[in-house]
Amino acid sequence: MATFLYRLGRTAFRRRWLVTLLWVVVLGGVGLGAAKAPAAGDDGTSFMPGIEAQKAFDLIGERFPGSDANGANARVVFIAPDGEKVTAGDYRMAVDELVSTVAEGAQVDSAVDPFKADAVSKDASTAYATVNYKVKADDLTDASKDGLEKAIDQARGSGLTVE
Asked: How far apart (Å, rounded) are the C-alpha atoms in residues 155 and 163?
């Protein structure tokens, strides 16, 4: 092996211009190939059917309607004051108003009502609504974010703690 490496080094030194030119051609070919290669597609998260991760996503979708993994989503939590229930008249109206207001957003795919999705705690002191967007979190506009924040501020005016 030592003899082979010695001869290879000696040949590379004697023909150094040819070796340098060969390396430039190889590196140029690699660079050209990298520049012409198509970009990797970002088509969201997908799993092979039957694996545990896919089963988990299916179970989440089944038990928590509206929790889509493809676009951005926001979970809005409503907490009633001590001793009161989120399902009480004024509080329920505030939650319904928030859901309907947010659902009208341009980038909103759906807003899931906690009363229809069974997302209310057993003692009815807490509930959550899920807002699903058509785009990923990085692509949300400031108008979409501000629309959600304004709706949350309006719901807080009813006496609910909204986060």
From this structure: 10
Q: In whole angstroms, give the CA distance from residue 104 to residue 32.
A: 48
pTM, entire model: 0.58
pLDDT for position 71: 75
Domain at 66-162: CATH code: 3.30.70
Q: For residues 26 and 28, give the distance between their C-alpha atoms in angstroms, rounded to a whole number.
A: 5
How far apart (Å, rounded) are the C-alpha atoms in residues 16 and 150? 70
**Residue length, the chain?**
163
pLDDT for res 23: 95
The pLDDT tens digits for 57-88 are 677 666 665 555 567 888 889 998 888 888 88
* Closest alpha carbon to 78 in 123, 122, 116, 127: 127
Q: Could you tell me which of 93, 98, 109 has the C-alpha nearest to residue 151?
A: 98
In 3D space, the residue among 161, 97, 86 whose CA is nearest the CA of residue 121 turns out to be 86
DSSP state of 84: -
Output the CA angle 134-154-89, nearest 5 degrees.
105
